[in-house]
Design brief:
The chain has 259 residues and is an all-beta fold. It has a single domain, classed as Beta-galactosidase, Chain A, domain 5, CATH 2.70.98.10. GO terms for molecular function: carbohydrate binding; isomerase activity. Monomer.
Length: 259
């Protein structure tokens, strides 16, 4: 377990996963073991969304890639590159065609191994600042590589009636619960505020959209995404791809604390 600290703020990171962000005695991150989700954050890459109805295949210019829900990156282990008192950088390297064990097999998937036909390096960095935690996700790979990217953090709820605001829109927790597994899209949006016992604002760079998801009343996932996967049939998921331009592509998430 790695811990970052600045003044009365602490961040806990477990093998690249954000498992804690506290200010004083207030915890903002959903805790593993609590009802709702077995994780506290993850990345969705190189695809977002389910693939089961497409036989776990996604089309690329190099043929079909075997991908389970939200891609293969989350099945890989992070390596710690560097750390300071207030920052840490992790990375994952992937070589084209390498088989990656699928943790969903055999209970939730027919595919024991996943693969992707392109090389890439994925970096995840954390930096604790005065009033915010900044998370940067960086992708380096072959020019023309298709991808989608989503960041999937889960926030702990401390009140009975939290409100999520996006621009002029105010969303009740009950509305998110009613959507279910598909997740609620918040499109063409770069900033969302969770109004709870203590407010927190998530501002992004590079994503352009969000999804909101939960199945319980004690947590909510506020997920920056480059593409809302339920806008198309699973067989057309490749319509949501962006393409690398041969240089590092950086996406940022600023988690700012309120009162």
């Amino acid at each position: 377990m790695l811990e970052l600290a600045l003044s009365n703020k602490k961040v806990r990171i477990d093998a690249g996963e954000l498992v804690g962000f506290t200010v004083g005695d207030h915890e903002y991150i959903h805790q593993k073991g609590s009802p709702g989700w077995r994780s506290s954050d993850t990345e969705m890459f190189p695809v977002i969304g389910p693939t089961n109805e497409a036989n776990f295949r996604v089309s690329t210019l190099r043929g079909e890639a075997v991908q389970d829900q939200h891609g293969l990156l989350r099945e890989m282990e992070y390596q710690l590159m560097s750390q300071t008192v207030t920052s840490a950088i992790y990375r994952k390297n992937y070589r084209a065609g390498t088989s990656v064990k699928n943790s969903k097999y055999p209970k939730k998937s027919t595919e024991e191994f996943l693969s992707w036909p392109y090389d890439f390096q994925f970096k995840k960095s954390f930096e604790l600042k005065d009033l915010q935690l900044e998370i940067a996700l960086s992708i380096t790979g072959e020019k023309g590589m298709p991808f989608m990217l989503g960041y999937h953090p889960a926030f702990k709820l401390h009140s009975d009636q939290p409100i999520i605001t996006a621009g002029k829109k105010a969303i009740q927790l009950s509305e998110v619960l009613a959507v279910g597994n598909r997740a609620m899209p918040i499109l063409n949006c770069g900033t969302i505020t969770l109004r709870d016992k203590r407010d927190i604002t998530i501002k992004t760079e590079g994503f352009g959209n969000f999804m909101l998801w939960t199945e319980v009343a004690n947590m909510i996932c506020i997920e920056p995404i480059t593409f809302y996967p339920y806008a198309v049939d699973q067989s057309n998921l490749s319509r949501g791809f962006q393409y690398l331009e041969g240089k590092e592509k950086v996406f940022k998430i600023h988690i700012s604390i309120g009162s």
